[in-house]
Write a structure and sequence with these properties.
The structure is a single chain. Helix 7 crosses helix 8. The chain has about 350 residues and is of the alpha+beta class. Strand 11, helix 9 and strand 12 (about 290-295) form a beta-alpha-beta unit. The chain contains 11 helices and 14 strands. Strands 3-4-5-13-6-12-14-8 form an 8-stranded mixed beta barrel, surrounded by 5 helices. The protein starts with a strand and ends in a 7-residue tail after the last strand.
């Protein structure tokens, strides 16, 4: 049956923390909740559904400036869709999705995007939340040239007929443009903010749909508690040509790993230099593998990944998209229009 929804209140946070724990099986810190859902209308908001005085459903959402075919637009990110096990099949998810769609249309949103678990993505399609366009592509680079089987659990060949990763990079990168190495800069620095603003403006005519990665967005994105992000830039003749953000961690089997969570560069040469330079930096610090998620509609984007020594690894987050405005609906569907990195999801 239809369920009434309302905006979440600060008093709901303990209940939301418990709901998250029960649905996803791990507990998000109170500090992380306060960062993502300040519940003051500043960026992220939440719809909740109550039953018998308890919060039994939640859908978070936020609005972000976005380029849409070269013009300013608005993107809605939907996140943390949760329904208490005791209330599934009772119209809770449908009510939450409908509330977000009404909000999107009322606020002039161009596109709505979410990165749910696969089972939630298929359900959300049925409720009109959009279309699953696939999974965000993942890429991997091993320092020691092992096959990909160790990282995926599925048998795969080594890069090129048993060649090590170094030989593979030499093969695919032969003749590529050379440039100065990447530079690491402070993620809170004015230099990073200036570079972000310049590249955000540059990106408006390079991809059909892409988040505006300006200084304001970057300040919020990398302020998440408990993280230690590192920022890198490459320079071209006219200034900064690309920027990336990465973090080092450890895999479940104890391998030192780096993950590039965001990157944008103006052309293929800068993308190759950026990917190769960031990976080399972390490898020299002991990382055994470097991974990243990346969808870029520019025709050379996959080639750039190969040339930097990366290989397709598998499937990243499920991605569901709804074109809300007429101008967004007029653009090519699916990945043909979208620039997305892992930082665009609600998973980091």
């Amino acid at each position: 049956m239809p369920r009434p929804t309302r905006l979440a209140l600060p008093a709901d946070r303990p209940a939301l923390e418990d709901l998250f724990d029960g649905v996803f099986g791990w507990r998000r810190s109170t500090e992380a909740w306060a960062w993502q859902y300040p519940l003051d209308g500043s960026r992220w908001n939440s719809f909740v559904v109550e039953a018998d005085g308890a919060v039994v459903g939640h859908l978070g959402w936020a609005l972000f400036p976005t380029w849409v075919d070269g013009e300013p637009g608005t993107m809605m990110i939907a996140a943390d869709t949760m329904v208490a096990p005791s209330h599934r099949g009772q119209g809770v998810m449908g009510a939450l999705v409908e509330a977000s769609l009404v909000e999107a249309r009322g606020r002039g949103v161009d596109v709505r995007v979410a990165f749910p678990r696969d089972v939630v993505g298929s359900m959300a399609e049925r409720y009109g939340a959009g279309k699953v366009i696939g999974h965000l592509p993942q890429w991997i680079r091993w320092r020691d040239g092992r096959s990909l089987a160790a990282s995926t659990g599925r048998p795969r060949l080594a890069p090129v007929a048993g060649l090590g990763m170094g030989a593979f990079r030499a093969a695919v990168g032969a003749g590529r443009e050379r440039g100065a190495a990447v530079e690491e800069i402070g993620i809170d620095s004015s230099e990073f903010a200036t570079a972000a603003d310049a590249l955000a403006e540059e990106s408006r005519n390079l991809v059909a749909i892409g988040r505006v990665r300006d200084a304001g967005y970057q300040r919020w994105r990398w302020a998440r508690p408990g993280s230690s992000w590192r920022a890198f830039v490459v320079r071209g003749d006219d200034g900064v040509a690309g920027v990336a953000v990465a973090e080092r961690s450890t895999t479940s089997d104890g391998i030192a790993r780096a993950r590039i969570v965001d990157l944008f560069a103006v052309d293929e040469a800068a993308t190759v230099r950026l990917l190769d330079g960031v990976a080399t930096t972390f490898e020299s610090d002991g990382a055994g593998l470097v991974t990243f998620e990346y969808a870029d509609p520019r025709r050379w984007s996959r080639r750039a990944c190969y040339r930097a020594g990366f290989l397709p690894r598998g499937d990243g987050p499920c991605t569901i998209v709804l074109a809300v405005s007429a101008r967004a609906q007029a653009l090519p569907p699916g990945w043909a229009s979208w620039f997305v990195t892992y930082a665009d999801t609600d998973l980091v």
